[in-house]
Design a protein that fits this description.
There is one protein chain. This protein is α/β, with parallel strands linked by helices. A seven-stranded mixed β-sheet has the order 2-1-7-3-6-5-4. A seven-stranded mixed β-sheet has the order 11-12-16-17-18-19-20. A seven-stranded mixed β-sheet has the order 21-22-26-27-28-29-30, with helices on one face. Strand 9 (520-525) and strand 10 (534-539) form a beta hairpin. Helix 14 (292-300) packs across helix 15 and helix 29 packs across helix 31 (640-655).
């Protein structure tokens, strides 16, 4: 029988045909309608719910029935239509079958209008079909075919095939035209890249300046580094929605353009090389646009003679479409209540079967939770070197490269900022071209210098007359500052303005000046949902918007400061605005810093703002002192800039003897842990020892710290002069001992090394005894440990260590639950063996083990190994085995059971059919009924060639051996055979054998259509006679001999016990199924008893 995961797989393959599959499975039409209305857009969900309904309500929900329905629809195992049947009889006048209609509906489904036209269906009818609420093109295509059948006198296959051929020709032309036009549009974009916006006479093609930065992917809650940006689209683990996150300036839009270049130029090996249609839309342009097809027409194909309906038809029909939605954080309608295709795509209500990538600074409020998340991490040293050589110095040689790199070294305050690709690009070009490039003490100083370069470059190209008129805009830009601040400080940020609005606020001359400067950009956008386009003005990049907004905040700080104006301006999204404001307003920045410190998580941003202070050092130290009174956290979720700012704060505290209460390294410590006496972070940053740090806390899911790295950590702790405690928790994997040399001063300083495993249990490492210990009070606590097959290898390793630590420290473990993860080998080297390869050693404090596992086979040798493991667990009281189809031996040789199990009176329990519980008699090696009261297998036990038959046969034998009554066994389709001795009943079709069941009460043989000879019948009768409790034997729908011969003794035994032998059978002489009884005296079948 199909299980849920099989249903999900099938649903994803034939989603568009769910109604037709439902009809083949005889699901009522009203039920299909209800399923359709409950899952309005998600066709996969509709198909899945249909299958679940069928499985629950069908009299025979078997795999065979489902396969028959699939074949009836001409669908292969991959969900594709098999059109081979359509090749026959094309020139005959036959009706179009349902199967052909299904195949036609699926093939180029988006071209349903064109198919309708070829079949001469009126436009009004096609319009009415389009007005139906369903977005499924395959359903509309099916409606077209049904309409055609109703209006044509004949339905020859040839007519339909000719119409399909014509539609395919039209489609091929449309797809090629659309692809060619898109490539031309993208070429205009990727051929005109401006690294520095004010130098407009120097344009680059994207491949000349594109350099790969870091890319991480989120897997099981942890960020893993990808080798290349191309892996984003090559990643086989990914769902059909990808979300690519990145801070401002980290190259999200550049990445989208690089994919456009790869596709347009046919770059070999690129994941988009063979994509038929690539759609890249800048979401900031789509305010008020509800239809993605209109957006494609207006912004990508405005100059082409392509209709919106053609775009829609191609996208719905093409087998290979990639969509990249760039800049969701700048999408004007992201927070509005109005519906749009973009929102439906992000929620996977539309284009469920297309690959969609979404770039954004932060996660959308609503999105499909199955999406795969990626994060751009910026430039490292390698990427910066590559960019300098590739795009800055060109053929100028290594000396020019070294000169640019030296200027970066001369400006260490900018080293973090230059992780941001956008900033580094401008820095590198200016450092190369400006002979007077200066040293900077803060990011604010650098940005002020960069803005001045913008003005200088433009003014140097103007006539003297114009310079005098325009220079005033360099210093007098309060309206621009106000506009930037108002846009960023709204609850829903506004990052672009209509041209009329900007001219009204700034004046025409000021507006034109900043557009010529390159700081403001004109961009075509949708004016409304009806008008095709308009012109809006935005800042070249959001960083520039933050700069001018910061200038406005600096003026506010100098006056009557009202922090409520910032209530919607979260520092996480606008960190540069706050940093710039503190750097621009040195005298009044304390107001802003105090405001930030009151915000949740505001300490991180306070640190960044502090680094912009280049004036009063005493004021700086006072703020640092206040911050260090709370825990400082460096998290793996922080970008490199945030991490380095915290490290700089630690350095300031250390240099000025400011006590630091605690440094918390949260999931950010590298696997290498230490290098050169420093701690090493995943980001590549180093954490040097701090002379004022008092507590170091390390957390990290799955962080494995072996012995040599633990020694390095202890040596690092020794170098922190004021350190009092080193703490580990939340998923760290630590060694049970550290036999290598431990710095002796750690013991004399009485530094505490603690390991918090949760559930209130904290281990302390005894440096003298080289082992983990717990207070005596903790030994009264009790652990419960659960391991499942769904756990990752690291999670299982964590559980194994939990048991090891508890055993070493004498902490009782009341129960270990092992659910579905025991290996088929069961034990190895005296340990339990898990599917992950982990070995679970015996625990001296473990009290109970519970093992569950569907289909787990524990034969005799493995059962003995399991009992031996149990013996080594010194405090163990109970071993419980349970689970569907858990196969265990019917008995265990008593001589091989470890003797101590008997003296310790350990309970070995087995849960079986109908909640029966057996206990292993450790003296005799037999399973006996556990507990008081009567036990009976009341339900019918079916043996029907299913995967559960082996387990059922084993449990029937166990019940019989334990004297537990078995109400009835049905043997269906297994062709049971027994020799005349009847010592067992062979089931050749299942390759099993049913032993004598001394407690069986009824036996039914259900082999429809089987013709049995006398020897076979006598064998079954002999087997029944030896089942001492049988009261009834029934044959169903078989052909049997007229008389049973050679079974006098067997018939006598059955007669003496008053056994009823009957069935709905036919005999060799009467070829009609009739209800008959076997006369146990004469051995003949009679119609009446």
């Amino acid at each position: 029988m199909y299980f849920c995961h099989s249903y999900q797989d099938l649903s994803s393959k034939i989603a568009g045909l769910w109604r037709f599959l439902g009809r083949e499975l005889k699901i009522p039409q009203q039920t299909l309608d209800r399923i359709g209305s409950n899952n309005t857009e998600d066709v996969t969900a509709k198909c899945y719910q249909s299958l679940l309904y069928w499985r629950k309500n069908s009299a025979n929900p078997s795999k065979r029935v489902l396969e028959d329905a699939r074949r009836a629809m001409n669908i292969d195992t991959g969900g594709r239509r098999d059109s081979s049947s359509d090749r026959q009889g094309d020139h005959e006048v036959h009706p179009v079958t349902e199967q052909q209609r299904l195949a036609s509906s699926s093939e180029k489904a988006g071209m349903w209008r064109y198919l309708g036209k070829e079949l001469h269906i009126p436009k009004s009818v096609l319009d009415s079909i389009e007005m139906k609420p369903s977005r499924e093109a395959v359903n509309r295509c099916h409606d077209v075919l049904r309409q055609w059948e109703q209006t044509t006198s004949e339905q020859p296959r040839l007519v339909l095939k000719q119409a399909q051929q014509k539609v395919n020709e039209i489609y091929t032309g449309l797809e090629e035209k659309l692809a060619r036009a898109l490539k031309m549009t993208y070429k205009k974009q990727y051929d005109a890249i401006q690294p520095i916006p004010y130098i407009r006479d120097r344009l680059y093609r994207i491949d000349r300046i594109f350099v790969e930065g870091g890319v991480n992917v989120l897997v099981d809650g942890s960020w893993e580094r990808l080798t290349s940006y191309q892996d984003i689209l090559k990643d086989k683990r990914v769902t059909l929605l990808r979300i690519i996150e990145g801070d401002p300036g980290y190259g999200k839009s550049t990445l989208a353009l690089e994919f456009a270049y790869d596709w347009g130029e046919g770059v070999k090996g690129s994941p988009v090389e063979n994509v038929r249609i690539l759609i890249i839309l800048r979401l900031r342009q789509l305010g008020g646009v509800q239809s993605i097809n209109h957006a494609i027409k207006w912004f990508l194909l405005s100059e082409e003679n392509v209709k919106v309906s053609d775009i829609k038809a191609v996208i719905e029909s093409c087998h290979s479409v990639q969509i990249i939605l760039d800049g969701h954080d700048e999408y004007p309608d992201r927070d509005s209540e109005n519906q749009s295709d973009i929102k439906d795509i992000v929620m996977r209500k539309m284009f469920q079967n297309l690959n969609v990538s979404l770039t954004t600074r932060y996660l959308p409020k609503h999105y499909d939770q199955s999406a795969r998340r990626y994060k751009l991490t910026g430039f490292d040293d390698r990427a910066r070197d590559e960019y300098i050589r590739k795009a800055v110095v060109g053929d100028a040689g290594e000396q020019a490269v070294r000169r640019v790199k030296q200027k970066l070294k001369d400006n260490p305050i900018l080293s973090d900022l230059c992780d941001v690709p956008l900033i580094f690009v401008m820095f590198a070009h200016m450092a190369y071209e400006k002979k007077d490039f200066q040293k900077f003490k803060s990011v604010t100083e650098f940005f002020r210098y960069m803005i001045s370069c913008f003005h200088h470059h433009l003014l140097s190209k103007m006539s003297n007359t114009n310079v005098g008129q325009m220079r005033r805009f360099e210093n007098d830009h309060a309206p621009l500052d106000q506009m930037a601040f108002d846009g960023l400080s709204k609850e829903h940020q506004k990052l672009s303005w209509s041209e009329e609005e900007v001219r009204s606020q700034l004046g025409d001359d000021c507006c034109e000046y900043y557009v010529r400067l390159g700081i403001l950009i004109k961009e075509e956008v949708a004016a409304s949902s009806t008008a095709q386009s308009g012109v809006e003005i935005r800042f070249y990049h959001k960083l520039f918007c933050e700069w001018y907004a910061a200038l406005h905040i600096a003026r506010l700080l100098a006056g009557n400061w009202d922090p409520s104006v910032l209530r919607h301006a979260h520092p996480y999204d606008l960190q540069y605005m706050y940093r710039f404001a503190c750097g621009l307003s040195q005298d009044f920045s304390e107001k802003l810093i105090n405001y930030l410190r009151e915000l949740p998580g505001g300490d991180k941003f306070t640190i960044l703002c502090l680094l912009e202070q280049t004036g009063d050092q005493d004021k700086l130290v006072n703020v640092v002192s206040d911050l260090c009174k709370k825990t400082l956290t460096i998290s793996d979720d922080d970008n490199k800039l945030m991490q380095r700012s915290t490290l700089q704060l630690l350095e300031i505290a250390s240099n000025h003897s400011v006590p630091t209460i605690c440094l918390h390294l949260d999931r950010c410590l590298s696997d290498a842990v230490t290098t050169g006496g420093n701690l090493l972070l995943n980001s590549g940053l180093h954490v040097p020892p701090s002379s004022t740090l008092e507590t170091l806390e390390i957390t990290g899911k799955g962080l494995d710290i072996p012995e040599e790295e633990m020694v390095g950590l202890l040596a690092y702790a020794d170098k922190c002069d004021e350190l009092k405690e080193l703490k580990f928790n939340d998923g760290c994997l630590l060694p049970l001992s550290v036999p290598a040399q431990i710095p002796p001063s750690l013991g004399t300083r009485n530094i505490g090394v603690r390991y918090d495993r949760g559930h209130g249990l904290v281990y302390r490492f005894d440096l003298g005894a080289d082992q983990w210990v717990v207070p005596e009070s903790s030994k009264s606590r009790s652990l419960n440990v659960t391991m499942t097959n769904d756990d990752s290898q690291l999670e299982q390793q964590w559980c194994v260590q939990e048991l090891d630590l508890a055993s070493a420290a004498g902490v009782p473990t009341s129960c270990l639950q092992i659910d579905g993860c025991i290996s088929e080998g069961v034990t190895a080297g005296g340990n339990l063996l898990l599917k992950s390869g982990q070995h679970l050693p015996p625990s001296s404090t473990l009290e109970m083990i519970e093992i569950t596992g569907k289909g787990l086979d524990i034969p005799e040798e493995k059962m003995i190994g399991l009992l031996a493991f149990t013996e080594r667990c010194e405090r163990l009281k109970k071993l419980t085995l349970k689970g569907e189809q858990l196969l265990t031996p019917v008995s265990v040789p008593a001589g091989r059971i470890p003797p101590s199990l008997k003296t310790r009176n350990i309970e070995v329990l087995l849960h079986s059919l109908e909640e029966l519980v057996y206990r292993l008699n450790l003296v005799e090696g037999k399973w006996v009924k556990h507990g008081l009261g009567t036990a009976q297998i009341r339900d019918i036990v079916q043996l029907n060639r299913s995967t559960e038959d082996k387990w059922r046969v084993r449990e029937l034998a166990r019940a019989s051996a334990a004297g537990i009554p078995i109400a009835r066994v049905d043997i269906d389709g297994c062709s049971p055979v027994a020799d005349q001795s009847g010592s067992s009943l062979a089931l050749p079709r299942s390759q099993l054998s049913l032993p004598i069941l001394s407690t069986l009460q009824e036996l039914w043989i259900m082999d429809r259509g089987r013709r049995m000879n006398n020897t076979e019948v006598v064998g079954i009768l002999s087997y029944t006679a030896q089942c001492a409790a049988v009261e009834e034997l029934l044959f169903g729908y078989q052909t049997l001999p007229d008389r049973v011969q050679g079974a006098v003794s067997t018939l006598s035994t059955l007669r003496s016990r008053n056994v009823s032998v009957k069935g709905g059978i036919r005999t060799e002489s009467q070829d009609v199924y009739t209800w008959r009884y076997l006369d146990l005296h004469a051995g003949v079948w009679e119609t009446e008893k």
